[in-house]
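Below is one such protein, fold included:
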Amino acid sequence: MPLAHNFVNELKDRIDLYDLVSPYVQLKKSGSSWVGLSPFSQEKTPSFYVHPDKGFFKCFSSGEKGDAITFVQKMENLAFMEAIEFLSNRFNIPLKFEEGSGSVPFGKSVKSELYSLHEVVADWYAGHLLDEGKEGAVALEYWTKERRFTTDTAKEFKIGYSPVDRFALSRFLKAKNIPPEILEQSGLFNKNLQGGEFVSRFCGRLMIPIREKIGRICGFTARKLSLTPEWGEKKAPKYVNSPETPIFSKGELLFNHDLANKEINEQTDFILVEGQLDAIRCWVEGFRTVVAPQGTALGENQASLLRKSNPRGVVCLLDGDAAGQKAAFDYIPIFLKAGLNARFSTLPEGSDPDQVLLDQGSEGLEDLLARGVSPIRYAYGHMLRDVADPAPADRKRVSDFLFDSLSKVNSFVEREDHLRELGKVLGASIDNLKKDFEQFLQNRRPYQMAGSRLNSQDNSSTLQPERLTTAEDDLLFVLLHDNRVAGPLAQLFDPSWLDLQVPSGRVLAKILAETKADGPVTTNRMEEFLEDEEERSAFQGHLYQDVDDEDKESFPNIVNECLNRLFLRSSKRRERMILKDLMNSSENPEDEAKLRGELIQIRKSFNAPPKLSATFQDNLSHAQN
């Protein structure tokens, strides 16, 4: 069912771009705009600008720009209609459809269906935890007695319980007429059906909802209970997580990130713990910037998520065993590459943040956090903890390990700061460390350079400088920034000159056709003509370019240059076709004479391409001055 005329513009007009962007990016006021770190690239200095009054954003580090719809598409990886639906739901703006376009309801996207399904299922699980049934009582006792959490905390995090009956959830959802194809992609059921029925992945378990960065439930972690069925000889695992689905990718998620992100600022640190229940305990006890990786360890994408929130840093609470140490050594290159100021705090062996808070209260955890050390001091302390008197070879072992991590640091200033700290720890001068580091890089470089040469050998002979914009691009740019050009241009323009394989060419053809029929159109109306993502990208890419007075002064020349290029390209193409027809023509003298006459006219026109009238050019230039 098509959307109502002008609904897209109405939707954008009713959305405050600051409200949309702020859950993703920490923004600060800058004049009439807002500025923050780019959500599209890794950076230390904010270059991402939001202009709510104009309704668009621009990122100088990545080159990304656009409106509310574009932002949601990029951040949530959505198609255009999915983004419209997302914004409609997020800001409670009902979708509007063309009257008389049929009674078929608007089909929700798969991702939207899955998010909605997970909310319904989370409510169902939560109801089973707090009901008066025998199973729910066992799960609630585990939560309140063994884990020592309250029912209020269960409600706050929507903790639930999945019944032992493996078909209970599918019966519940079947009664709600959830399409089978959505159930298949939800990750809530095993792949193989039994008797044609969906079999629940989670049976007899405590259910912990996982939310993505703006708070939507996208999956679950299921904790084993005494009720959990054991299938066969293989013991049921302690934890079972949702599998990868269209809305759940554990490498892109951090548990409690949606809540912690609202508490973080440049004066506070993220607290990284290993498990969801540790994170919940920290949150309950007032440590509101706590997060946990969704998976066995933190990855680069998750570190990038933390960096984009612009915290002071991150403190890792690590287990005191070998696994905790391994995690720390895995995290060091990740944090250094992400540009995160990290510190490592080691928990007493056999303990976790949950236990520390229960036994020692918030003071015990604060003491542990205060003892955090930098990645460099942590590496030195643990690599040489059994060496009473480190020899030069021991110190070199530490430096080589850290050199590999430091080679991934993009900022030369940050890299030098780390080298200075390493020098203090090793008792070496910064100059000598720099020499060793450069030698380390040199030893690795030949392989990288060889690979680079190998990759470029086959293409080197064919590489040619390419034009960054087409004539269609340049002409569209002018039309979007000065609508006075469209009317005169439409009268002398032949649509056959355009390359419709180029998105800008298709957009231009539509604008000029509409202008010729009804006169100049506004940019809002132009947007209604766009049919696919390529056209929207081309349109917005030009619309949101900055234009200064010098640019506007050149508009008449740009238009005439584009006309010249398009006309000559079309004429040359027609010339080649005539020459080919002449070569293959029959012996009919009339046909040949007609072709030769057309060829002469085309070649004469090469010297007189169409252009804007001198009067219009003068008027346009004077108006701009």
About this structure: The chain has four domains: 7-90, 110-248, 252-372, 471-624.
